[in-house]
Each structure stands twice: as structure tokens, then as C-alpha cells.
Amino acid sequence: MCGITGYIGHREAYPIVINGLKRLEYRGYDSAGVMLFDGQEMHLSKTKGKVADLESIISKSPDKKLGSIGIGHTRWATHGVPNDVNSHPHFSQSGDLVIVHNGIIENYDTLKKELIKRGYSFKSDTDTEVLVNLIEEVKKEENCKLGKAVQLALTQVVGAYAIAVFDKTKPNEIVVARLGSPIAIGIGKDFEEFFVASDASPFIEFTKDAIYLEDEEMAIIKLERGVKVRKIKDDSLVDAKIQELQLSLEQIEKGGYDHFMLKEIYEQPKAIIDTYRGRMLADEGIIKMAGIDDHIEKFLNADRIIIVACGTSWHAGLVGEYLFEDMARVPVEVEYASEFRYRNPIITSKDVVIAISQSGETADTLAAIKLAKSKGAFVFGVCNVVGSSIARETHAGAYTHAGPEIGVASTKAFTTQITILSLIALKLAKKRGTLSQTAFHMYLQELQLIPNKVERLLQIDDHVKEIAKVYKDATNCLYLGRGFNFPVALEGALKLKEISYIHAEGYPAAEMKHGPIALIDENMPVFVIATNKGHYEKIVSNVQEIKSRNGKIIAIVTEGDIVVKEIADHVIEIPDTEEALTPLLTTVPLQLLSYHIAVMLGKNVDQPRNLAKSVTVE
Ligand code: AGP
């Protein structure tokens, strides 16, 4: 996810654009840039780093701040590592056009090859630079205006985008377009000025009148003339409604949610889609992952896979162990990176190490990677931040496309990590012949249904909130799960601990009788993941054991369950899916539960005490 913003009107554009980027920085923060048009020239300033770094660079060149037209961008890299040249805005080859883009052009490579044949050269590795040159080529070929060129060019594009494009030869207009990524157009009095942005936060103090583009719509914004909204596919006019904004600035930055954590819980359906998009072709029965494909022999010949991670990422790694061993029959060990790095582990060149990290900056995980590499292991990274230290340190990897995760409590990172691990496990299973074609296809089809099932699951938020009310004053909680959902029990306990400060422990359900059952009494809420999958009758027995000791039972069950419903104090029903994919669903109610309890207790949900989003120290 990136942030784009722009201004065209009678004011100095620079303060509006740079402050707008600061308000959009939650959307992406690995590099930033602005273009200001002073009436003659377009002045471009861009850099790796944060908006503040950009600001200090521009402060040294006052001439780069002039003009009443400008566009800006704060980046969350998807193609091309974060560096100055890959930062936006990007110029076209002629230098007449400039673009900022939020999204992913999936067929950029094909388009780039065609443009190179037509004499274009490229400075960056980005898909965005391909798009601005495609627009330029169409404009030349069709001898048309910018708006028409954008419309025609986008009919050749596959992917997601929110773009703002400016042509210095026609400096009284900005063209924007949207597919899959948001764009808001702020409308000034008497059309004397216009604002464009990923959300309304950059212009909320200037105007409350806005048009939100719908998918596959574009707009030609002309000074003194107004906004013409059109359909991209056929250039037909759209009767766009001007809305009067009611949201506060703070609410807008959080997408209307009260906290980033809740926003990120609700972003999971899209994050899972974005993570498997372009990698899983369910209908064709294909999984494409360059980081695996290019090193497939390493994986197929490995004696074992060692997964190293911390915290929530470690829990995802545990799910990965169950996935790899169950599907691909590959021996797996899951290690806390902080332990692995110091316990003098036995590592050989026949080992494949998978390092999982949302931030890509966790010091213990980075150290574990370096140790594994020093002993000859092949190291594969699963990160959410493009160009992060771990992404650069590993031999290969796959990015989760969850977008920035701002809340300290990791949510969408966990489910997208499991998505990546599921794809790897399925890919290896197919290669090793340990999964039948039928089973393989069934898993792909089922994985494709998961986002909708998560979407459906999010509708139970109010029900979870009612349960949270009952148990918000507990001082100790237990989380139980079996098989694929044992790691989810651990994850649910961590979520509660870290944002509500209530002590919670996760356990394998069967482990209860080896000690923890002594804790059970009427004051002990027990959250049990009791989906009707493998060992169902065993988990039912565990639930009965708790009941007979007056424990309070909150059970996550498969829709339609009647057995556990008879015993538990509360049930949360989740859609049915394959056992191996249930963690993608059972996690969601536990995330919501910890969120609501923390809010009810008045805790700082997004920045809990003593914690940091990325633990870059030992
Ligand atoms: C999880 O909610 C915590 N924020 C924490 O345990 C986190 O998962 C851990 O620090 C690992 O971070 P990483 O994924 O960025 O490496």
C-alpha cells in the first residue's frame, strides 16, 4: 500500500503536498518524493527514507518548492527495493509526463519488453515507470490528450492502481484513475482548486467536498472547469456524486476504524488475496513462486527445513511445520530465533532455513539467518517489508503483500505468512508427489475461498464483543487447540497478553491433564478451538473435562456444531474449510476478542506498554 497526493489550484502546492504525505505515511514509509511545477519546469525531489528525510532534502533547494501544482508519494515497495531511483514520482522518457502510483501492475514485465522494443529505456525497477511510459507511448501513437491516453493505456494493464498523472505541456489539469486502490478528489470552492489523495486526510482542512472514485473509474480534473469522471473500459461519462465528508482527520488515517489493529484485522481478506495473487492459479492448478522455483532442488534435496522466527511469526512457523510435514512429508523443526542463534545448533548445507518476519528487521531472526548462512544452509525469507534487512540477507524469499502493519499486535501479517507457507507446502507436496492431484487442486480451490470466509467471519464481530464484555476482567486465561490449531491457541494467548495485559497461556489441548488442569475453576476462562476436524472427539473430551471442573468455556466451532454447543458457555462459529487451512479462520475471532477486551479495559491498543513494532535489539 502506498500513499499518493496532489494539488492543483491557487495556493503554494508544496506545503499541502508534503503535509499530505505526512498524513499518508501510515500507508507506506520506505521512500517518498514530490514533483512541483513552477509554471515552466517540473522539479522532482525523491529519496529512500521517510517524508521527514525528503523534507530536509528539499529545504536545501528552495527553488524545488515553488509552484501551485504538485504531486507526492510515500512508498510501500512492491517492485524494486526502496532506494532513491525507485521512489516515486516517475517521469516518462520525454520528461513531459509524471506519475505517482499505489498498487501493482502484474503484467508490467510484458509491457516493459514491448516498450523497450519501441525505444524506451528505464531508470528504475518499478512497474510504475513502465505505466507512465505506456501512457506516453499511447499519447504519441493516438495523438490524443492525456485523459484519453490514460484511459487507453489502462485498458492494457492487469493489476491494481491508484494513479495521478500530470502533463507539463497541459498544466491546467491532473488525471487520476483507480482500480483496487482508493482515490479521493477534494473539490475547492468554485473549482478554483482541487486535491487528490489516497484518502481525504491531506485535504480535510481545505474542503469537505469530495468525490471518491469507484473501481475502473478515472477523472480528468481541470482548473476552473471541474471534474469529469469516466469509465476506463469504454470512456463513458459517470455521474459522480460529491460527498460532504463527516470524518475527523484521525478517523480518516485509520480508514474510519478506531485503531490500526482493527483496520488491519479487517484488511485480512484483501491481504490474503494480495499475497496469493499472481502466485496461485487455482483453475490451472499452478503455484508460481520465483524464490522457490529458482531453488527448488535445495528444497527437494533438503534433509530438513528449519523455521526460525519470533513472536507471532514463530506461531506462523509452527503452523508451517504442520503444513510441511502433513502435505510434503518434509521433516521440519521450528526454532525461536533468539534460542537458535546461541545454542550452537547443528546446521549443515543440506538444511533449508525459512526465516519469517513481518518487519524484516527483528535482530534475533537476522542473527539466526547469519548463523545458518555461515554454516552453509540455504536461507529463504518470508517478510512483509520489501528491501528490509532480512529480505536482503536471505538467499531468496517471498513477500507477504499485507501492506504496512502499524498496530504493534501482529494480525494480517500472521494470516498472510500462513498463506505463503501453505503455498510452499502445497508446491513441495506436488513436486514430491506426496499429495494427489485431486487433493492439490482441492486445496487451491479451498484457499481461494478463504478470503470470502474471513469476510463472512468478520460479521460476527458484535457477537465476539459480547463475549469480550463477559471476560474482560479475567486475570488469567487459557487457550487450547490441537493439531493445526495448537499454534493458533498460542497466538490467541499472545494477542490477549500483549494488548490487554491479562495473563494468558496457550496449550495443546491434550496437555491439560499433565498439569494445567489444576488451574481450572469458575474464574478461569478457557478459549478452546474445537473445529470438527481431526481428533474432534478428543477435543470434545477436553471440553467436558474443563466443564466438569466449572471452567468457563468459550469454544470456536465449525458452523452447525451441536455437540460442543451443548457443553460450552459460549460458542463462536466459523465457516467450514479443510483442516490444514483452519488457522486462517480460527485466528480471526481470537484477534477480535483480544482487541475488544483491550479497548474495554482502556488500553493503548496500537502501542501497548513496553512493546515496539519491530524488536531490532537483542
Ligand atoms: C506479535 O503481535 C508481536 N508484535 C511480536 O511478537 C512480533 O510478532 C515479533 O516481535 C516478531 O516480529 P517480526 O515478525 O517483525 O519479526
Assigned CATH superfamily of the largest domain? Aminohydrolase, N-terminal nucleophile (Ntn) domain
User: How many beta-strand elements?
Assistant: 27
Report the sheet with the most strands, covering strand number, pairing sense and barrel closure: 8 strands, antiparallel
CATH-defined architecture of the largest domain: 4-Layer Sandwich
Structure notes:
With 618 residues, the chain is of the alpha/beta class. It has three domains: 3-251, Glutamine Phosphoribosylpyrophosphate, subunit 1, domain 1 (4-Layer Sandwich), CATH 3.60.20; 254-456, 3-Layer(aba) Sandwich (Rossmann fold); 460-605, Rossmann fold. It contains 21 helices and 27 strands. The strands form five sheets. It has an eight-stranded antiparallel beta sheet, with helices on one face. A seven-stranded antiparallel beta sheet has the order 5-6-7-8-12-13-14. Strand 21, helix 14 (389-393) and strand 22 form a beta-alpha-beta unit. Helix 15 (412-432) packs antiparallel against helix 16. The longest helix has 21 residues, at 412-432. It starts with a strand and ends in an 18-residue tail after the last helix. The structure holds 2-deoxy-2-amino glucitol-6-phosphate. Residues 310-313, 357-359, 362, 365, 408-410, 498, 614-615 line the site of 2-deoxy-2-amino glucitol-6-phosphate.
